[in-house]
Amino acid sequence: MKTFDYTKLANQSWPMEIVNLVAKIHEYKGRQDLFIRQKPVELTRLVEIAKIQSTESSNKIEGIVTTSTRMRQLMDDKTTPRNRDEDEIMGYRDVLNTIHESYDYIKITPAYILQLHKNLFRRSGVSYGGHFKSVQNYINETLPNGENVTLFTPIPPYDTPQAIDNLCQAYEQALAQEKVDPLILIPVFICDFLCIHPFNDGNGRMSRLLTLLLLYQNGYNVGKYISIEKKIEETKDVYYEVLQRIDLGWYEGKNDPVPFIKYLLQVILACYTDFEDRVGLMSEDAPSNAYEIVKVYAAEQLGKFTSRDALIHCPSLSRSSIATALRKLTEEGYLVKKGAGRGTYYLRNDGE
């Protein structure tokens, strides 16, 4: 049986890049906490946008998709799922809402993890929701010639319940001792969770939901306002690359979690910097009207952007205010409007 002892992490030396990333995130966290206390109402829009992006992106990584219009309707409960993909999208939304609203009351134990997994698949009606895997699973790679190669064989089904129990106990023990920074402990926990691969299906989505849960419980709630899952989906090539490396020597305790720690910390830091960029347009010394706010946003764009992009990055404005500002900026020649209908986008007119 694989053993877990996270207390050893306290004595490990970490690359300076990891140390610097942790320090920067601590700094950003302090500033975010201050802003949240000062202007909680203004952040409501960011929360709703992040929920949509998180649900869409985490499922998209697994090839579970629907249209943007259907996604918004599903998230707003304005329609019902039409197929298995949409059932699973709604399941993710349900678990994400639970984590947002009740993270302080969710224990890191096998029972709670199984309940989250059950809720993830509740709408799909599959029998394996809320149960550990019943058959051996494998981490495979498909070669260019179509051949399937097994890269790693996770823990077998009969050892999985005990492995998850040991994993959770090791995490709680290390957390209670307060000798390992949670920003180090959380990625290592997720690495081991993925190597156990405890479910027949949903391991990737559960790993991302657990990442959010553990971050929230330790005071790092940037994912509530800026989608961590979207950042992962946007860098999924790197994500897959580091995941392929975390299991080398895992059974012998010789695997190297550093690449995954570095990757996840970079994602978290990117979310914090995005948060500051967006709330900067809400600050007292920021532009005070929709026209100026959208103009400042447009001035920072190097390529094309849509009205939806502007809506996401200017959370203090309504859809109609942004549409009016974009129209005025286009009429003035500051922006160039391209495309039509849903394919409409804008470019800054640099006179070239």
From TrEMBL:
<dbReference type="InterPro" id="IPR036388">
    <property type="entry name" value="WH-like_DNA-bd_sf"/>
</dbReference>
<feature type="active site">
    <location>
        <position position="197"/>
    </location>
</feature>
<dbReference type="InterPro" id="IPR040198">
    <property type="entry name" value="Fido_containing"/>
</dbReference>
<feature type="site" description="Important for autoinhibition of adenylyltransferase activity">
    <location>
        <position position="62"/>
    </location>
</feature>
<dbReference type="InterPro" id="IPR003812">
    <property type="entry name" value="Fido"/>
</dbReference>
<keyword id="KW-0067">ATP-binding</keyword>
<dbReference type="Pfam" id="PF02661">
    <property type="entry name" value="Fic"/>
</dbReference>
<feature type="binding site">
    <location>
        <begin position="201"/>
        <end position="208"/>
    </location>
    <ligand>
        <name>ATP</name>
    </ligand>
</feature>
<protein>
    <submittedName>
        <fullName>Fic family protein</fullName>
    </submittedName>
</protein>
<dbReference type="InterPro" id="IPR036597">
    <property type="entry name" value="Fido-like_dom_sf"/>
</dbReference>
<dbReference type="GO" id="GO:0005524">
    <property type="term" value="F:ATP binding"/>
</dbReference>
<feature type="domain" description="Fido">
    <location>
        <begin position="108"/>
        <end position="266"/>
    </location>
</feature>
<keyword id="KW-0547">Nucleotide-binding</keyword>
<feature type="binding site">
    <location>
        <begin position="239"/>
        <end position="240"/>
    </location>
    <ligand>
        <name>ATP</name>
    </ligand>
</feature>
